[in-house]
Amino acid sequence: MAGTWVFVDQRDGNIRKVTYEMLAEAKKFGGEVAAVVFGKGVEGLAGEFAKYGADKVYVADDDIFAAYNTGAYVAQMVAMIKEYSPNAVLFGHTMNGRDMASRLAQKLDAGMATDAIAAEISDGKAVFTRAIYAGKALAKVEVTGSPIVATIRAGVWEVVESAGAGEVVKVAVAATAADVYQVAKDFVPTVSARPELTEAAVVVSGGRGCKGPEGIKVVEELADLLGAALGGSRASIDSGWLGHELQVGQTGKVVCPGLYIACGISGAIQHLAGMSSSKFIAAVNTDTEAPIFNVADFGVVGDLFKVVPLLCTELKK
Ligand SMILES: Cc1cc2nc3c(=O)[nH]c(=O)nc-3n(C[C@H](O)[C@H](O)[C@H](O)COP(=O)(O)OP(=O)(O)OC[C@H]3O[C@@H](n4cnc5c(N)ncnc54)[C@H](O)[C@@H]3O)c2cc1C
To answer: Which residues hold FAD (predicted)?
Structure first.
């Protein structure tokens, strides 16, 4: 068995933090740790991964990998796994990671765990911990078969610098034009000076209790004072107060920040599914019975239009 592979989640050379989190943790599993990077002009990134524990960096550099492409990426990964036989292949639980890991597991007839928040891998055995019932319970899932495929929730592991040998292995390109069955024609990033929701250390979210765009501005001010990402419940997204990319929850994004502040959010099970693994949860809600208080470490029963501006005033001092 050839150790643990970590798929590098990157776009235009911007590497998602979860990649480094996985490299650091994979080091603890014992055996060789390898980063696997696909792209065009990505060879220069290889040195980065050695700092976080990569003993090897497999690089597939070709036009066909210039932008994420399901068919080409999966075909390449299948070919590489057949050649090098890694014990486990880890992906971030990101849009691309989820897309790729599930198809890869299906192609290889491999066992898979998704959205894991902890993992123990040794001697070809792997046990992953997953939050179930919106974080009300934890399931331990043993993945059998080979290779072990898993997606890991961003933010649950620390980024730790730890030197690896970082030997660069340029792999043959196995994906062909026939593997490309969909092409991304355009990529339009949402422009925001705030941190990316799934990678932020602090997330401040607004719900229906904000009562409209003006209420969202109150929450936004708090986010900006804390250097936080802004998020929202589905109620505030569906009302058009916030963009869809900011929805937290079962049908939105899963976040795991050090601090999550829920303002005017009731704490429906679908919202909890996206934030209940946050390390510290604070909530402001007028209703003492709001379910958000069941998961909150710190709760303020009060009107967010009074509490949040007070907090902002204190933070400005
Ligand atoms: C299949 C499915 C998927 C879903 N996916 C998601 C998802 O991904 N994410 C998600 O969030 N939801 C999701 N939902 C919707 C979810 O069930 C809830 O409807 C939604 O989360 C409610 O949003 P909310 O808490 O903002 O609104 P509400 O439940 O209406 O809560 C508003 C809260 O604000 C409080 N409040 C009111 N005024 C104030 C004030 N002045 N100050 C402080 N507090 C105040 C109220 O006491 C209340 O608790 C999904 C639902 C379904 C069926």
So the answer is: 208, 233-234, 247-251, 264-271, 285
Q: Over the stretch 47-65, which tens digit does the pLDDT of each residue have?
A: 899 999 999 999 999 999 9
> What whole-number distance in Å separates Cα of residue 235 and Cα of residue 211?
10
Interface predicted TM-score of the whole assembly (ipTM), two decimals = 0.99
Multiple choice CATH, 197-316, 3.40.50.1220, 3.40.50.150, 3.40.50.720, 3.40.50.800: 3.40.50.1220
Hunting for tokens 């919202």 — which residue is that? 271
Q: Which residues line ligand 1 (CB under 6 A)?
A: 207-209, 233-236, 247-252, 264-266, 268, 270-271, 274, 284-287, 290, 303-305
* 268 annotated to a ligand binding site: yes
> What is the model's pLDDT at position 31?
87
Q: Is 251 annotated as a binding residue?
A: yes
Domain boundaries, the chain: 4-179, 197-316
- Architecture of the domain made up of 4-179: 3-Layer(aba) Sandwich (3.40)
**Most ligand 1 atoms within 8 A of CB, residue of 270, 301, 308, 310 to mutate:** 270
Which residue CA neighbors atom 29 of ligand 1 most closely?
A: 266
E strand residue ranges, 218-287: 229-232, 259-263, 281-285
Count of Cβ atoms closer than 10 Å to residue 20 Cβ: 24
Q: pLDDT tens-digit profile of 257-277?
A: 999 999 999 999 999 999 999
